[in-house]
Amino acid sequence: MILEKKFFFRKEGSVPGEVVAVLFIIVLAVVADFFWFDVDQ
């Protein structure tokens, strides 16, 4: 059961690794933009 979970987890995390990174960068950019807008106002 643990081995199956580990394999499934590895399979799940291996595919969307780049997607998660891109999503994180986008979120970071949006947050920075929001902060800049907040500071500007």
Molecular structure report:
The chain has helices spanning 2-14, 17-40. The chain starts with a helix and ends with a helix. The chain has a domain at 17-41. Helices cover 90% and strands 0% of the residues. The chain is mainly alpha-helical and 41 residues long.
Strand content: under 5%
Taking the sheet with the most strands, its summary is: none
**Average pLDDT metric:** 73
Helical segment count: 2
3D shape = rod-shaped
What is the H/E order? HH
Termini, distance in Å?
54 Å
- Alpha-beta content class: mainly alpha
Q: Could you name the ranges where pLDDT drops below 50 across 5 or more consecutive residues?
A: none
Share of residues in helices: over 70%
Radius of gyration: 17 Å
Number of strands: 0
Transmembrane segments: 20-37
Keywords: Membrane, Transmembrane, Transmembrane helix
